[in-house]
Write a structure and sequence with these properties.
The chain has about 130 residues and is mainly alpha-helical. The chain has helices at about 5-10, 40-45, 50-65, 80-95, 95-100; strands at about 40, 70-75. One of its GO terms (molecular function) is metal ion binding.
């Protein structure tokens, strides 16, 4: 199966394949996080105040390291553009598995890269 969406939509799925199951360690701090998803203020990232900008960069790094994602605010993207982006994203994920394979990318640094892992041949688990 090429994608998680395809996996979920398959009619014969009885359980989650083992290569999609990440073993949990009770000592893992991410399991004990109770705070909200990190929020990054774009206006602080581009601030002319070096101290403010440095703190925002640190917060961004922490969010990427600790969470793997974040919410970006004050980015200036219009509601219309966000809607178009969401529609384009939905149309991509609605493509057939075969059509999506055209975007799988053979190289992590390809301009368009889509996949469940950075290097499926090396990674033991898929995301």
């Amino acid at each position: 199966m090429f994608s998680v969406k395809g996996l979920v939509e398959s009619n014969d799925l009885k359980s989650v394949p083992s290569n999609y199951i990440w073993p949990t360690n009770p000592e893992d701090p991410i399991l004990h996080k109770t705070e909200n998803v990190p929020t990054i203020d774009f206006s602080q990232l581009i601030s002319s105040n070096p101290c403010e900008q440095s703190l925002a960069v640190q917060k961004l790094g922490d969010a990427c390291r600790d969470w793997g994602f974040f919410m970006l605010i004050n980015h200036g993207m219009s509601e219309t553009l966000r809607g178009e982006f969401l529609r384009a994203s939905q149309s991509f994920f609605d493509l057939s598995e075969e059509e999506k394979k055209e975007y799988a990318g053979g190289n992590l640094f390809d301009p368009i890269y889509c996949g469940t892992s950075f290097n499926v041949t090396v990674d033991k688990k898929l995301f």
